[in-house]
Amino acid sequence: MAFQSFDEISQPSLGPARAAALRSKLADLGLDGFVVPRSDEHQNEYCPPSEERLSWLTGFAGSAGIAVVLRDQASIFVDGRYTVQVREQVDTATYTPRHLIEEPPEKWLGTVLKPGMKLGYDPRLQSMNEVERLRAACEKAGASLVAVRENPVDAIWTDRPAPPLAQIVLHDVALAGESVSSKVERLQAKLREQKIDAVFTNDAHASAWLFNIRGGDVSHTPLPLSYALVPAEGQPTLFADGRKFSNAVRDDLAQHMAIAEPSQIEAVLAGSVKGKTVRLDPAMVVEHFATLVEKAGGRVQKGGDPVALLRAVKNEAERAGARAAHIRDGVAFVNFLAWFERTVPDGKETEISVAEALERFREGTGVLKDLSFPSISSAGPNAALPHYRVSHASNRPVTPGFFLIDSGAQYVDGTTDITRTIAVGEVSPEMKDRYTRVLKGHIAIALARFPKGVSGAQLDSFARAALWEIGTDFDHGTGHGVGSYLSVHEGPQRISKLGTTPLEPGMLLSNEPGYYRTGAFGIRIENLILVEPITIEGAEREMYGFETLTLAPIDVRPIELSLLTTREIDWLNAYHAQVRETLGPLLDEPERVWLEQVTQAIG
User: Fold this and answer.
1) Does the keyword Membrane apply (predicted)?
2) Which of 120, 150, 185, 318 has its CA 20 to 30 A from that of 375?
3) Count of helices and strands (H, E) across the chain
4) Separation CA 446–CA 438 (nearest Å)
């Protein structure tokens, strides 16, 4: 079974006609513009095809972005990962690309909106925070922000796919490590402690974790699209399309919760939250649900989703599952690397054939559920696009230089994400320098020791220091949180300038510094790491560090040894010894011999 497609999904040539059709619809509605985010009601990173409005309208296929279409101009906003990609996928005569962080939509709107103009938006697709920012920009310009009942993009999208209806399945409590009743009790205790009467969440990851359910409504993440209302006392309610439940699953879940249709959310809120304080995460909950809570007489209390922090700290069963998944995935990845080294010199491999080969090795485990995202299989200048997606149109042969492969898998016991940059033939001194500096950043995070209370934002610079020394950097976070047979990108924990959540033992993150030379090459080295308590003799504070879970050799051929310290060399040699000792006995003889060769101590 193929878990990824290489068909070209972007159609820039259709952008002008679709923008014109949208403008015609906006004129019918008396609107001067409309905001089109890349999101659904659940604010997922991965959306079902029926929710890919931004991609359909503009051609942009990235995982984050927003377009604003006015009567006489339109802009599309993307972050640093997509600044090159957006120009390749979008008709730039129709949509002007802008940087989502440096020039966000509200800032741009402040320069183009005129008094009296009406800007439309869909309250089911924009978070409370987003709407607040848009409203402030409109008010400052003397314009008004208008919520639409029906999305005008849907009105012109005549062949829009049907919503997904994948079956909901139970996630084994032995893998989850905690029963539904225990999770609900812990959550309710948190709510009572914070004097919150209830929490409503539209985050399908929250419902999946809390109720020990999984599904298949979106690609690469085993999510059932759903919502949840959890009171501080009494029974929670899971909202999901009834067609997704078998009788057995419904009966099992009914022991712990009420089950209702999403269309019943308004009625359930009306009957349960009057006069009560309801916690809504303003960064995740779309404005539509905040309006329903207020309409029902509830008091909206803005704050982080308490489920997210509970989910972020993996219990012992989840940690054990993650370790097992990474050993299994490590064997598949070593088999792939050995194949790559044997096969690539023939000169016949391409980005697509390499991605397909890695998928085959993972399928060879016999327990692969899905990829955790489409593999980023990138040669030469394509590797300079951090979120490159190979298609038949962009497919490049593997040629001398760097080859970057970023990929991951979904197993029932864990989610993986690994990146390796491989030297194919000779690479230049500059490429070796940058590779070594990226490796230094990776090792700096792996070796980090920090007191309780430290956040990812405080560690982020560790990964960048060696690049800063020569006046360069990378445009993405150093690390994101990772779920347990859930999303490969999970919050609130992360290692980035914006990562304000304190890191706690049991949190799973990526460690992936990089370097990108547009039009030339890209470098990234990624392992998954687990926060763990550590003992330091004489320490006066509670201290934490990281356990590295990912097991696969790091290419030593492009290393400029003179740039590494003794401590960094020691870390790399110890890591390679661990890879060799853990995976060696699980490999066939040719691959075991190859692994021994590429993990020999250096320095």
Assistant:
1) no
2) 318
3) 20, 28
4) 13
Virtual torsion, Cα 170, 279, 490, 177, nearest 10 deg? -40
Q: Does residue 485 sit in helix, strand or coil?
A: coil
- The token duo for 599 is 């993990």
Taking the C-alpha atoms of residue 220 and residue 487, their distance in angstroms, rounded to an integer, is 8
In three-state secondary structure terms, 11 is coil
Last residue of a domain, one of 156, 189, 204: 156
Could you give the CA distance from residue 184 to residue 232 in angstroms, rounded to a whole number?
A: 9
Tell me how crowded residue 142 is: count the other CB atoms within 10 A of its CB.
Answer: 11
**SS3 per-residue string spanning 198-245:** EEEECCHHHHHHHCCEECCCECCECCCCCEEEEECCCCCEEECCHHHC
276: amino acid identity, one letter: K
Both tokens of 399, joined, read 């040629």
Residue 465: CA atoms inside 13 Å, Cβ hemisphere, count? 13
C-alpha 505/C-alpha 533 separation (Å) is 6
| pLDDT tens per residue across span 400-453 | 999 999 999 999 999 999 999 999 999 999 999 999 999 999 999 999 999 999
CA 202/CA 555 separation, integer angstroms: 42
Residue 4 placed within a domain: no
Q: Could you give phi then psi for residue 115, rounded to 5 degrees? A: -55, 135
d(CA 355, CA 139): 49
Shared domain for 413 and 552, answered yes or no, is yes
CA distance 197 to 278: 6
pTM of structure: 0.95
As a whole number of angstroms, the distance between CA 302 and CA 322 comes to 33
Number of domains the chain is built from: 3
- Domain that includes residue 95, residue range: 12-156
Give domain status of residue 5, yes or no: no
Angle between helices 566-583 and 589-598 (to 10 degrees): 170
60's tokens: 């942009």
Query: Quick check: is 537 in a domain?
Result: yes
Decide: helix, strand or coil at residue 491. Answer: strand
The length of the chain in residues reads 603
Select from 261, 280, 311 the last residue of a domain: 311
pLDDT tens, residue by residue, 173-207:
999 999 999 999 999 999 999 999 999 999 999 99
Give the pLDDT confidence score for residue 1 in this predicted structure.
Answer: 66
Beta strands 514-517 and 521-524, pairing class: antiparallel
Cis omega before residue 492 (within 30°)? yes
